[in-house]
TrEMBL record:
Coiled coil: none
One Pfam entry name: Thioredoxin_2
Top-level taxon: Bacteria
Protein known as: Thioredoxin family protein
Signal peptide region: 1-20
Domain Thioredoxin: 4-153
Amino acid sequence: MKKLLLVLLLAVGSYATVQAQEIKWMSLDEALAAQKKKPKPIFMDVYTDWCGPCKMLDKNTFQTKEVSEYINKNYYAVKFNAEGNSEVTYKGKKYTNPKFDPARKGRNGVHDFTMFLKVQGYPSMYILDKKGEVQSPIVGYHTPEQLLPLIKA
């Protein structure tokens, strides 16, 4: 009985490992530096901590094998918190979030880079071409079946 239970637990654990995939996220500064060494487009997920559809995108779309493998193979992947306090340097200009309040829960000051991108809603996904130029956004929650054709185009 113990052996059967152990085999069952191992099977379930290995199935969960196969199902949940990880995208290799990095900062925008790291991706832009990597892009200079080996040109490859950048896939950037712009999210906020309070955004429900952003969390659904993480759980239901980015963790699927097809999406994570495609993004890891073809892009440098960036996760950017639109209300975070990171400093971003893009095209020689530094962007910050001067109104960020670390004690605040929920919505926080909007990051200057979010304003530069003209983010229309959350989540928003951007592709920066091999030269680092920002392309049109993909706005809103997308299933894997909806997202893959858009990022393969």
